[in-house]
Amino acid sequence: MKKLTLLFFAIFIGLAGLLSAQKQFSGSIKTSYKIEGTEDPNILSKVPEENEMIILGNKSKIVFSSQGGAQTIIVDGDKKTQTVLFEINGYGKYYTVVDEEKMQKKFQTTDYKYDYLEEYMTIAGYNCQKVIVTETDLETDEVESMVVYINKEICNTDAHNFNQLPGLLGFVLRQELNMGEENENAILIIEAKEVNTGKKIKDFDFMLPSDAKDLFKDTTPDEKKFFGITDEDED
Question: Is 198 exposed, middle or buried (0-12, 13-18, 19+ CB in 10 A)?
Fold first, then answer.
């Protein structure tokens, strides 16, 4: 009986560990945007003050609103797809999907290098590691770099990065981007300010509206012209 008890206890501990390892992050993250290194109002007005992303496992969704409508970006790290939904006032709702094959073509001329440093910062209550990202254009040899801070409790793979920084392990909670010489070398800082794990997120939240049209398959020639879509784009 004692052996059976110990065996049952070992199985229970093993299952508990497995369930813990499979537990997925669910919640929302409020993000702030700010620009340092310039007082130019034309540059400062280019970014929103804050935004909110919802996350369920390897899925994320963020909405950017404007006077003319809204743009929603849905990323599915399991299927390796990125869906962009355009809601344009007076016109309707249109979407386009970029799958893994198209994503690979997008990055085939760019080399990404990640230097994980032993430097850490607490961001919205999460311990984050500093990473130097170096992007090299293989056609022009042009090199750009940025700084990101990643957390591996929210995600420890590149499931949330494959569409922008393929191969970067961890969830990005802060980015520091140089806006270039034409913008007075200003630095754009995108940083998580609040992580809310109490908000219930469901798969339904990542579904497209039923009246949304596929931008390439369901639109008229005039609609394609409005979006600037050419025959080459459709291929």
Answer: exposed
Average pLDDT for residues 155-178, to the nearest whole number?
Answer: 95
Between the alpha carbon of residue 129 and those of residues 115, 151, 172, 177, the distances in Å are 10, 7, 9, 17
How far apart, in Å, are the Cα atoms of 92 and each of 52, 64, 87, 89?
23, 16, 6, 7
Please give the domain boundaries of the chain with CATH numbers for all domains: 25-226 (2.50.20.10)
pLDDT digits (tens, 9 = 90+) for 112-157: 999 999 999 999 999 999 999 999 999 999 999 999 999 999 999 9
Question: At CB < 8 A and 24+ separation, what contacts does 37-43 make?
Answer: 37/184, 37/185, 37/186, 37/187, 38/183, 38/184, 38/186, 40/183, 40/184, 40/186, 43/179, 43/183, 43/184, 43/186
Using a 10 angstrom Cβ sphere, with 0-12 exposed, 13-18 middle and 19 or more buried, the burial of residue 62 is middle
φ, ψ dihedrals at 136, nearest 5°: -120, 125
For residue 183, what pLDDT is reported?
A: 66
Could you tell me the pTM of the whole model? 0.83
